[in-house]
Write a structure and sequence with these properties.
By secondary structure, this protein is mainly beta. It is built from 4 helices and 13 strands. The chain folds into 2 domains: about 55 residues, no CATH class; about 150 residues, Trypsin-like serine proteases (Thrombin, subunit H), CATH 2.40.10.
Length: about 220
């Protein structure tokens, strides 16, 4: 969400065309995309106008120490628009609390995913997942400090469901072909992509940036 402040107390929203600015993840099996706003962002700043924006980027990822100390079960926040629900008056999404159901850095089913114990509905796809510690958070040495700590650990893209009676469909029974009602019921388990996949998107916009980051840390 971006807006330019043309006068005191007033914002002018900016609309950007997706054509030419939409980037898809290089792995076709990963449902993740990015919108490149670097050029329009820079043009606005160069024009002398003030820019009010909020960005979620790789600086929100876990630090090396946090990755080492991440527990199997962590309290998380999921921010999104479940079933299209949002706070239209304040232009804000909906925040829900849950926990990791598998380790947030482990490969669930051998892929770059983990499970989150939170109800996910249509409109939840693309919701960022954050570890959330408050009013105390853990330090690398295991001690606790007053305050709130939030880190970006995943992006919701799917949900695990089970089949129960509902819709009519033909299934094979032991002695006959019978029509049995079937519908999908959620297990309240969302599937989230590992957040470090955003670094792959960074590389598309700024080739070589991940190598530079690694050199600075070494």
């Amino acid at each position: 969400m971006m807006g330019t402040n043309q006068k005191v107390g007033g914002d002018h929203p900016i609309s950007l065309p997706l054509a030419g600015n939409l980037l898809l993840h290089p792995d076709p099996d990963i449902d993740l995309c990015a919108i490149d706003i670097t050029i329009p962002y820079g043009l606005i700043l160069q024009s002398g106008r003030q820019l009010r924006s909020m960005n979620l980027n790789s600086t929100w990822l876990l630090s090396p120490d946090d990755r080492k100390n991440l527990r199997d079960i962590e309290q998380v926040l999921v921010i999104g628009y479940p079933s299209g629900l949002w706070d239209s008056h304040n232009n804000m999404p909906i925040a829900r609390r849950g926990s990791t159901a598998t380790h947030a850095l482990a490969l669930y089913a051998g892929k770059r995913n983990f499970l989150v114990d939170v109800a996910a509905f249509q409109g939840s796809s693309g919701s960022p997942v954050f570890t959330y510690e408050s009013p105390m958070f853990r330090q690398p040495d295991g001690s606790y400090t007053p305050g709130t700590k939030v880190n970006f650990v995943g992006v919701v893209w799917g949900v695990i469901e089970r089949t129960v009676t509902g819709d009519l469909m033909a299934i094979e029974m032991p002695s006959a072909i019978t029509q049995v009602p079937v519908l999908q019921a959620s297990l309240n388990l969302a599937i989230a992509l590992h957040a470090d996949a955003v670094r792959d998107m960074d590389e598309l916009v700024f080739p070589g940036i991940n190598s530079v980051r690694a050199e600075r840390k070494s």
